Amino acid sequence: MQTFDVIVIGSGPAGSAAAAWLARNGYSVALIDKVKFPRDKLCGGLFTERSRKYHREIFGADFQIAKAVTKHDVTLWHAGQPLGTLTDIPPLHLTMRRGLDADLQALALSAGATDFSGQAIANITATSVQLKSGQALAAKVLIGADGVNSLVARTLFGQAFDHNEIGFALEIEAPLPPLPLEKQPLRIDFDAAKWGYGWSFPKQHSVTIGIGGLHRLNPGMKAQLTRYLNDLNVAEGAKVKGHFLPFGHFRKTPGKGAVLLAGDAAGLVDPITGEGIAFALKSGQLAAQAAIEALTDNAPETALRRYKRALRPLHRNLRIARGLRSLIFANRIAPIFYKKLKSSGHLRQDYMALLGGELEYPQILRKIITRLPRIFLRNRSAKVPASPN
To answer: What is the DSSP code string of 124-176?
Structure first.
């Protein structure tokens, strides 16, 4: 049996971040993934400046921006109607997850993590992993960063997530239209799926187009994708990818004892914007730091307690976001919200600042609480007919 300080399962952003942080701090770490990289992954591939900041902190190097398409403007739509185009927004870097994740894994391996990619897992315990190849690995702390269908979460809790409580998305890669790349629009369509949205993100060699929303509210998502492609004048025929998304249903207790969950495996995805890469990177770092502190005190069983404490600000953001989502998408309030979104440049800018990492949800909540009474009063007065007298 080969022994490490920590085993990390999953080589996506969360797992690579955890492995790199551990290795850069002098700890031995096994980085396991069932597939070899590069590999495809359903995701819009939105890499924000918040993600870029975390990338610098964790890997000690800047994100390879030359591999992305950077946009400073976005067009917002709702139910087939334009809400407006915003310019001078926080930079949004549009990446292909195939290349991004391979680069992150390579950084973790170059930091000193031991590569066990392309190796399926036969069995997991709190302190060991048995690979299907027959090789056995042991460690004092284990970090599960193996996505929404996490084997680690299923081992701990019986299931990763209740599919009725999370999201689902469909996505294609379409050919780039015959326009210069700088003129290819970045587009977000609210209500392309119920309690969700659609996206059209131009990349260097294709356009990533998809829709995502709460799974239980979108039984006909394939037909919804067809309608969305028709709205964008995109011909069908490209391969459709589908995947569950931990869309706002995070685990309040992300692990047990010395076993921690990070990234999608812990449900750390923004329930309004759908952004998850930044949370994956940060949670991987926080899980790794909790492991370091627990091992330093020779108390690996305290890793979860330390990790939960470190996650409090992130969990607070997601709780507020989940509450706001219920407000924004509620049948009675949604029309008011979208009407205001169309008329208010400030609200659109706030949304993009939130997506770009320049605003956090507590700040957004304070702004909404301040503005809601005026919005409701204005909307109500507009509906009350004038007195005949």
So the answer is: E-SSEEEETTS-EEEEEEEEE---TT-HHHHHHHS-S--TTTSEEEEEEEEPP
